[in-house]
Model the fold of this input.
Amino acid sequence: MISSSSGDSIVALSSGRLPAGVAVIRLSGPHTRFVVETVFGTVPTPRQAAYGAFRDTRRETIDSGLLLFFPGPRSFTGEDCAEFHVHGGKAVAAALLREVTSVPGVRHAEAGEFTRRAFLNGKLDLPETEALADLLLAETEAQRRQAVLNASGAQSELYASWRRRLINARAMIEAELDFADEADVPGSVADTIWADVESLANEMRAHVSAYHRAEMIRDGYDVVIAGAPNAGKSSLLNALARRDAAIVSDEPGTTRDLVEVSLDLSGVKVRITDTAGIRDAAGKVEAMGIERSLRRAGEADLVLLLEHGASHAPRIAEIGGENIIRIASKADLVTGEADADLAVSSLTGEGLSELIELIANRAVEAVGNIGDILPSRLRHIDLLQQTQRCLVKALGDGLLELRAEELRQATGYLGRLTGEIDVEDLLDVIFSQFCIGK
Done:
């Protein structure tokens, strides 16, 4: 568990793996000024880089480089912070870290501890923190853009605006309950308030329904290659991945488990999975692989259904859905027109560029506008659905006092979403996603 003691100062290497051109060592906490004065000799002008020598207690030079000082609360963590930019050798970084941690009250940071302090000091809320974790892990342009949007506070502002509307509704309803006899309180605000509550419930419902788009951005657009044994599925996977990701053999039933590769197509992460050949007569182990293949094909965003001559098998008809592209494989061995959406050859490359473009277009269309605010965590979905259930109950018939209580509970769930109340049990899970130094 990460300590949140405000008496400690923390330090860590925040740049990449060493050796590197430059190493950045980050320091945060109440001892920052003293450490800077001890190691650098003076505290530079805030937020302006100063060049000089970093020295140990014997006044011997560890290295020369740049120092940046950020006084709290105008820093990432909200505390006094400093960054030491030195040459990226392992010995240099180790010597400077050793010198800094020799100061009483300064210790090595744990994973995510800088970001946790930023949260605890009100510099970030939970959605912004989660978006920062997504930004660190972003591999594609779509992931980066979505993470930047959420880290900028757009998602937090949406949830906060919903909470403000609920608080306003509660205030008006409770005023009607408590001061119905007062002359300056309207006789009824029900029509306006309940109409807005219903509108809010509908907005949340639409927002929650867009979660699969966020899943596709983060986890990938799910493409499954299916077909009979020896239809060329593994060869197609290897051709798309441009490496030998799956074993290719003339023997039917070679692929018995799922083999997955990830591609970046038009800025969207695409997961392509090779599955076991689907046929009727199969041994016990192969049959298990076939059942898994059918299940994965049923869950996929897109199925590439490969057929080659007599390779068609009756059970392939079990793969339903509209998102299927029928592919005639081994086009280099077939003459004449193929009864399929596309003909490809993994050997010659025929049709591969068209197939990749088709998959990319489907993925981009499914992901939609990257500028849309989407729920990015199952935690968000759970709390929003609980909020919705409270709103539905509040909109029903019953005593006004009970309906007001449902609004109060709904407001609490939204508060948990942004981290304003009752989130201590989530912190270790969230911040464990971060690397040391962040």
The first strand starts at residue 9 and ends at 13. The radius of gyration is 29 Å. Confidence is low (pLDDT under 50) at residues 1-5.
